[in-house]
Amino acid sequence: MNSERIYLDNAATTPLRAEVVEAMRGAAVDADYNPSSLHAEGRKAARLLDSSRDRVAAVLGVHRNEITFTSGGTESDNLAVAGTMRAAARGSQMVCSAVEHHAVLAAVRALADDGYRPTVLSVGSDGRVELETFSAALGSSTALASVMYANNETGVIQPITELAATARARGAVFHTDAVQAPDWLPIQVPSLGVDLLSLSAHKFGGPKGVGLLYARRGTAMHPLIAGGGQEFGRRPGTENLLGITGMARALELAAAERAAASDRIRGLRDSLESGIASSVPDVRINGAGADRLPNICNVSFNGLESAALLVALDLAGIAVSAGSACTSGSLEPSHVLAAMGLEPGWRRGAIRFSFGPGTTAAQVDRVLTILPPLVDGLRHPSTARAAAGNDGGMGRLKERTARGWRQ
Ligand code: PLP
């Protein structure tokens, strides 16, 4: 019996990298002071903040003053969307896609209640925003367009460079939520051509609760919270300096290792997908028709409840997520798969396997050994119960659902 757990939920969060822990340990003393203080201790902290800003700016290919440190992806997305719109005239239009993370969609909804005009674009069955649809939606009053770089549920990559060029040519500010990108895709801003870009450290081996927003110089933006003048007045509040130090190291590592890690993990992901397709009937890979991140496999098991399979896999030592882990506190079906036109039977049975740089071939082999009989057992419960002499994990599922699945 192999008792090692297999963590395939890296799109929800990645483990903190050892090198990042090391960097944070080394910076802990200086990071213990307030970078806004004028005394020697404060000046040391300010130097640490400055050097971290320089390092992330170098990875992104931007000027240091264009970086705003935040508490993570949700805040960066909110600052990008609401900060930009609040700097524009009420009644201005904002455009986003139907497959955005809730951090963007909910911000757009809240602004709509305040008199700004939302346009939420549909996507094709492959999950991609079509350029013509995007271009047709932009008008003279469009202040902002926001389309994510890669989707957190399916891994589908959007044509960001083309979308950004189209928006900018029409005078709109273009934001991309690049939270899922750094371990797998190039993130140099000059090549992407975006005005605003959100990142979150815990998605690429850094600590939780820290992120950044890149904002092109001259982009008008209102701070969302009132306070002091930190972060060039864009984000008041004492910075999470230790977290920022860890994020800078994690971003450098992600950029340096991206190409090799992507190739290796794409191979493993492809072998998981072909293994599932050949051993489990009635499955489909969501987003398979589009360019995808190499680490995400979103597969629907027709007729199954994904929560039941998630719990069965968890009991077998494999951590995955159903739909979006960021919102799996609720068991709501995925808005992303709905936007792609998936019928409810397929949507309900969707599981996301998301690999990390540390995922191994042996782990994939083990998933392929464990998964087919589990799916079969859930699809034919009476046969499986008789064989296993238990309830197939349903008791634990009910208990967790009652607790509300916060993660
Ligand atoms: N955007 C995307 C694409 C995400 O995947 C997530 C988190 O899952 C977020 C935003 C929110 O990031 P954070 O957890 O740092 O608030």
A few lines on this structure:
This protein has 2 domains: 6-14 and 258-403, Aspartate Aminotransferase, domain 1 (Alpha-Beta Complex), CATH 3.90.1150; 18-254, Aspartate Aminotransferase, domain 2 (3-Layer(aba) Sandwich), CATH 3.40.640.10. It is 43% helix and 13% strand.
CATH top-level class of the largest domain: Alpha Beta
How are the strands ordered across the major sheet? 2-8-7-6-5-3-4
CATH-defined architecture of the largest domain: 3-Layer(aba) Sandwich
Number of helices: 14
Q: Proportion of β residues?
A: 5-15%
Bound ligands, named by name, code or SMILES? pyridoxal-5'-phosphate
Within the CATH hierarchy, at the fold level, what is the topology of the largest domain?
Answer: Aspartate Aminotransferase, domain 2
The name of the CATH superfamily of the largest domain reads Type I PLP-dependent aspartate aminotransferase-like (Major domain)
Largest sheet: 7 strands, mixed
Q: How many structural domains in the coordinates?
A: 2
Question: In whole angstroms, how far apart are the ends?
Answer: 28 Å
User: What's the shape?
Assistant: globular
Give helix and strand order, one letter per element, not per position.
Answer: EHHEHEHEHEHEHEEHEEHEEHHEHHH
The computed structural class is alpha/beta
